[in-house]
Every structure is written in structure tokens, then in C-alpha cells.
Amino acid sequence: AGMKFVLQYVGCFFAFFSAGFLIISTWTDCWMVNADDSLEVSTKCRGLWWECVTNVFDGIQTCDEYDSIYAEHSVKLVLTRAMMITADILSGFGFLFLVLGLDCVKFLPDEPLIKLRICLVSGVLLLLAGLPGITGSVWYAVDVYVERSSLLFHNVFLGIQYKFGWSCWLGMAGSLGCFLSGSLLTCCMYLFRETSSGRFHSAYSLRKGYSSAATVMTNVHLPPSQTATSKMYAVDTRV
């Protein structure tokens, strides 16, 4: 039981921070940052939804939102948005299910098998959340790196060259955390499924034994008059 609690709480810890990292990564503005910041008087960051410029000297930040979501955008931007939003939704639901499945939460306290299944569903959701999260963040980072390398290889200088920033790193960390927490929860389910099932069947057999014993005791303590009356009634019925 102690190991089960440890696995649940470690999984909950990673699930909480992983879901938070994915959500912060999706809605922050530093997926791309200018690589030549030593020569610039401002730091330029691009996110999935807007682009921000921060003055190095006074720290004033100015952000410009991209055009409407229905406008024409690059395939990299559209697919990364879709994958990160999907990862956010799956990881959020995975964390909520995990909270309901914790043994310390007073939700279905007399149904250990159902709570274990809730933990399994949570683990599967977190594993599924890690797939679009890691795909979107790694693909975005690789695309930025390939674009910058090709420009350097062809000696093309556009004034501003980008590398992937901390928002992209945060998306990778959140995705890996989802994989870790999902693996812990699914292992927790399969390790302790038989134990909980045995306890459930033992409790059911015990309740069934109590019920049978009560029935026997009730029949034993019937008054003699009621027993004789029932026999006479049975004879009359046959006749």
C-alpha cells in the first residue's frame, strides 16, 4: 500500500507540473528568440500567437498579435498551435482524473477498483498528451534550426536570425513529464490491480457469508408454532 501511495503522489507531482509547463509554453511568446542578441539593443521573441520586442536598456516590452486565426499562416505555426492545444486539453483532463483517483481524495472511497481504473484513464490521457506536445515542440525547434542553418550555409543575412527559446524548451519538458507520469500511473494500475481485486472479492465473500449466516440464524430461531403451521400449509397445498 505504501508503494502504491508513493507512485500515485509522484505521478500527481509530475502531472501537475507537466500540464502547467504545456499550458505556459502554449501561451507564452518566446518560441523563437533572436540569436544575435549581443549586437542588438532589443530582444525579439516570437510565440504561437504574437511577437514581442523588449528594449535591453529600459525593459519596455511591445507585443504585436498575429492576424486572425483564419488568416494565412505557415504550416509550422498552424500545426504547432493545434498540437499544443490538444496536449493542453489532454494533460488537463489527465490531471483532473488523477486527482479523483487518489486514495486520499474522498471520492468513491468504497470502490478501490474504480479508483484504480480512474488512475489508468489518467495515465493513458497523459501519455496521449505527451505525443502531440513533444511532436509540436521538437518539430518547431528543428524547423527553426534548419532554417537558420540553411541561411548561414548560403551566407544569407536578413538582419534578424532566430533560435528556439525557452517556451519551446518548456513544451519539451512538459511533454517528457507527461510521458513519465503516465508511465508511472499505468504501472501503478497493473501492479496493484490484482491486490485490490483480491481484497474486493474477499470483502464480497465476507459480506455474502454474513448474509447466509443471518438467513440460517433466522430460520433456526423461528418459533415451533410457525414451523408447524408452514408444514400444515404445505400439506394442504398438495392435497
Structural descriptors:
elongated; about 10% strand; Butyryl-CoA Dehydrogenase, subunit A, domain 3; disordered C terminus
Assembly type of the shown chains? single chain
Q: Which range best describes the helical content: under 10%, 10-25%, 25-40%, 40-55%, 55-70% or over 70%?
A: 55-70%
- Strand arrangement within the widest β-sheet reads 4-3-2-1-5
What pattern of helices and strands is seen along the backbone? Answer: HEEEEHHEHH
Provide the β-strand percentage band. 5-15%
CATH topology of one domain: Butyryl-CoA Dehydrogenase, subunit A, domain 3
Enumerate the spans where pLDDT stays under 50 for 5 or more consecutive residues. 196-222, 224-239
The main sheet comes to: 5 strands, antiparallel
C-alpha Rg (nearest Å): 31 Å
CATH hierarchy, class of one domain: Mainly Alpha
Overall morphology: elongated
How many helices in DSSP terms?
5
Please provide the count of β strands: 5
Taking the alpha carbons of the first and last residues, their distance comes to: 63 Å
What would the average pLDDT be, to the nearest integer?
Answer: 75
Membrane topology: Multi-pass membrane protein
Protein name: Claudin
Main location: other
Subcellular location: Cell junction, Tight junction; Cell membrane
Task: Characterise this structure.
This protein has 239 residues and is of the alpha+beta class. The chain has a domain at 1-28 and 75-199: Butyryl-CoA Dehydrogenase, subunit A, domain 3 (Up-down Bundle). It contains five helices and five strands; from the N terminus they run H-E-E-E-E-H-H-E-H-H. A five-stranded antiparallel β-sheet has the order 4-3-2-1-5. The longest helix is centred in the C-terminal third of the chain and has 55 residues, at 166-220. The chain is elongated, with a radius of gyration of 31 Å.
